[in-house]
Structure prediction request, 546 residues.
Amino acid sequence: MKKLFIAGALTWFIAQPFFAKENVKEVKSDVKEVTIFLSGAQVTSAAAVTVAAGTTNLVFTDLSPYMWDYNIQARGEGDFTILSVVRKLNYLTAEDTPKEIKLLQDSLENLNDKYDYWESLKKIYEQQEQLLNANKSIGGQNTGVNIAELEKATNLYITKMTEIQNKKLEIKSKQKKISEQIAKINKQLTDWNNTKKSSTSEVTVSVSAKAPVSGKIFLTYIVPQAGWTPYYDIRAIDNSSPIKLEYRANVWQNSGYDWNDVKLTLSTANPSQSGTKPNLATWWINYYTPSYTNTSTYGGYKDGNAPPSTSMDLEQVNSEEDVKPKQKTNTSTTTANFTVMNDNSTNVSFEITIPYTVPSDAKKYVVSVQEMSLPAQYKYYCAPKLDKDAFLLAKITGWDKYNLISGEANIFYEGTYVGKSYLNTKTTNDTLDISLGRDKNIVVTRTKLVEQCDKKTIGLTKKETIVYEVSVRNKKKTEIEIDIDDQVPVSQNKDIEVELLESSSAKYDAVTGKLSWNFKLKPGETQKVKLGFSIKYPKDKVLTGL
Prediction:
């Protein structure tokens, strides 16, 4: 028996290396680099690690719960081999409610109780009001009313109703104040709920080493709760100087963790959008045959077999707050001077070379991307039929080399904010037109010359003659160039004949009916042009669109 025990113990001891548990070690990492896409962001966290000989499971804890599973990557610096990367959610690490939030929740409950109390009291006064109105008749049907009793009852009714109405007004005022307090607390609680963590991610990186070694592990993953949108500040000193364009980005994130002092890169890529080319299915067409079977078509494809959607848009949030880099220099006040642009084959990235902090609060923060001076030609434009104001346009050539993408723009002219515009870069034109807003110093009028207009009937035909005069006056102190557009109607019926009678040498497009003038105006100069046309049509018909 003794020999058997010794043999069993020896067997257990020898077998231990083969059945020993893998070494598990928790690791805390810090976010070092973030690439923000138009939708989503790629986050890189780093941690210093020490691993023993053999296999070690390094558990990276307290990570964003929103990371995508299928694109988590790990790379290392050190003499070890990465075997696998696995992610899971940990619901046991939910964030505890802070003391100040608990106080807000208690205050909210107390305010709701007060509101309910005043609501109950209001209903009591309303019941009293109904009771008074139901019993305000005096005397019976066969009994007269004593004047003294009537006066006494009337005074009592007035007194009681006045008291009730005053109480109801008082209650309404108290409820209004309580509702305002409730709204403020709810807003604070909503802001907190947007940032609290109900769970966290854990990523286990299994590594193998031949001997104990120290090194670094870098985790890279994508979170969808982030993004950026471009916008521009466009400044023109006058109508002869270059345009100053400030390229900015509204960045936001709600990953569950603040990005503190990170290396920030903005990319025009969109990882949530499929990169698979679409396949064009056959577009079937046939005679319509009524059928009682449950068949349908969708988008012109037989049996509803439309090509699958190849893109997914993630929600974006808007706000306007500036974020300031924690590292300051004496040579620049914006990050535009610290931006390195990389033009890749399918997208453009802007690398900000100073650290940035972006809180996880779903609010947008401003990052300066680039500042550039663009040569421009200035010209005014007006379509007085639609709008009698003249718009100043800056025409920029060679704009495509600046890697701009479409976005809203704040327009400043002569040091004054003139409004918002939209910079549309999705165009194949060589010239990019930027609207700098309205200029009230260019006065445009469009007047119908009634004395030259005519309407008469000749046999079975009716003929109308219409003449307009367009006047443009330059009240500025400098010479300007302006384009004026107007139009004459275009017939869609052979029985309706339109004839251009007068155009003042305008450029005329007979297909669209468009008339265009271009001229230069010296300071204080006025130019006038006329357009006249006639329309012949059957007298028993009524025209539309005239």
Observations:
- The first strand starts at residue 23 and ends at 27.
